[in-house]
Amino acid sequence: MPYYIDAPNLSIDVDGTAFAYRDLGPRDGVPLVLLNHWGAVLDNFDPRIVDGLARRHRIIAIDYRGIGASGGTAPVTIDAMARDAIALVHALGFEQIDLLGFSLGGFVAQDIVLKAPDLVRRLILTGTGPAGGTGIERVGAVSWPLIVKGLLTLRDPKTFLFFTSTANGRQAAKAFLERLKERKADRDKEPTPSAFLRQLKAIKAWGRQAPQDLGGIRIPVLIANGDNDIMVPTVNSHDMARRIPGSQLVIYKDAGHGGIFQYHGEFVPKALAFLND
């Protein structure tokens, strides 16, 4: 089977803007579109999760507008990111998709489902929260000190942002960051400081936005997070599970924002079972 570290960098024109993406897995069935976190490019998708899901599903991993190799200017609203993603899916010729959103990607994924309910068959929300959710407008305030800590200690800030400070958390962080380095050739472009800040503006606006009617989401939904998410507090996962009819909730112990990365060995079978149910 093909592996994510070898997947070619592709591009498609959507209304005059080039969007970068990678495409792997079987060609039949409903494709699974992946939406990633603040400042993430194609190389920030966990290859263990992508490869595990690609055993049974066609995977489309994308760069947002203005991020990585995608053209244009990064949007400052979740609304604009969702509209971009819908247009991209249509440009790729898909009539229906499954959707996995992590962190910022989970904000976008919720908005996509509410905007285009017939487009999405099944939805996976990880490390994320609803519009107006607890603590979301403070993502920047929580993150900046830990980003600086990473710079001062010569460690990737995701060590502190995505994982707990326990022995298990630090071991998981090290393993995750090593996986992100496995691809050696044709890596994506790093995000610019401007795009990074524009995405943060969108996150803050989402945190201050009026709550959406999540009761209107009538498709199967799987929600997953760590029990100690400091970026998008775990209480938001419980809130979404209460508000989305029939949703499933998985909370990983001694895990943070990157709970699905720490527990990828458990998350992938759970996600596959959910998608194939």
From TrEMBL:
Cited Pfam families: Abhydrolase_1
Gene3D superfamilies the record matches: alpha/beta hydrolase
Coiled-coil residue windows: none
Residues passing through the membrane, by range: none
Occurrences of domain AB hydrolase-1 (ranges): 31-261
Official protein name in the record: Pimeloyl-ACP methyl ester carboxylesterase
Organism listed in the record: Variovorax boronicumulans
Upper classification of the organism: Bacteria, Pseudomonadati, Pseudomonadota, Betaproteobacteria, Burkholderiales
